[in-house]
Amino acid sequence: MKVQECVVSDQVVQETAEELALWEVIVVPPGVKERIRNHSLLSMILRPQVPFAVTGLHGLCTLYGPPGTGKTTLARGLPAQLARFVPGGEVRRIEVNPHGLMSAEHGQSQQRVGELLAEHIPALAGDGRPTVVVLDEVESMAVARSETSLAANPADVHRATDAVLTALDDNARSHPHLFFVATSNFTKALDGAFLSRSDAAILVPLPTRGALQEILVSTILALAGKFPGLRELAGSPAVARAADMAAGMDGRRARKVVFEALSRRLETVLDPALLTGDDLAAAVADAIEAGQPGAEGA
Description:
Radius of gyration: 21 Å
Number of helices: 13
CATH architecture of the largest domain: 3-Layer(aba) Sandwich
Number of domains: 2
Helix content: 40-55%
Strand content: 5-15%
CATH topology of the largest domain: Rossmann fold
Largest sheet: 6 strands, mixed
Shape: elongated
Structural class: alpha/beta
Distance between the termini: 27 Å
CATH superfamily of the largest domain: P-loop containing nucleotide triphosphate hydrolases
């Protein structure tokens, strides 16, 4: 795979309703979104004006936590949150899928990582526009060298991680308009030197009971725009009971539970307004039986 193919999206983002929705749809504890936005904005404002030797800021934020908590969606929604504060009201978003970089061929992983991070991405952002680079599941390219299994090719893994660190150092000095947001489900798999370069590491936790209810209600209300009969269900005690049952469930699964509930009966497939609290409870029970709640390592 060529490094260009690892860039899955390259867009200039404005503060549109569609882009803002990426951020707004994720339910996290108070302060989490503010920390992500404020730290990113500080980096974008400060780093072009103050030398790296003074700030020591690498322009890197790591979002970590269990799968399904909204880390990637928050990272994708970040540019629209920053756009209003930057000249021109636009922020570029570059999304990277790093999995294709790692190669079984000796030395290829290091070469590809270096080419992507130190050459290709700076070239894409060559106009100097503020740019957020999303590195999803970054543990695939910044593997903890101390934990590398001898069953793999440890030398090549070490070199690939070294290439990541070198590129971050070089970009911090030469391209202060670049800001990297890395997501990780397994911080123990991340190299310590990578984590030390993160200007902020922010936990995006599993939703609380109240957050689960908010996710269920917001999903049902979104459907109620097309099927008004669902508004009664959204405000009923049945949703609160379903949230109680769903303790430990991640946000992605909680949202999908509503659609799983709709699929349980042909009547609700044909007319979603007929969805009941019992349908919702049964879908949550099925998810629990399947081991969804609390499956942080899934």
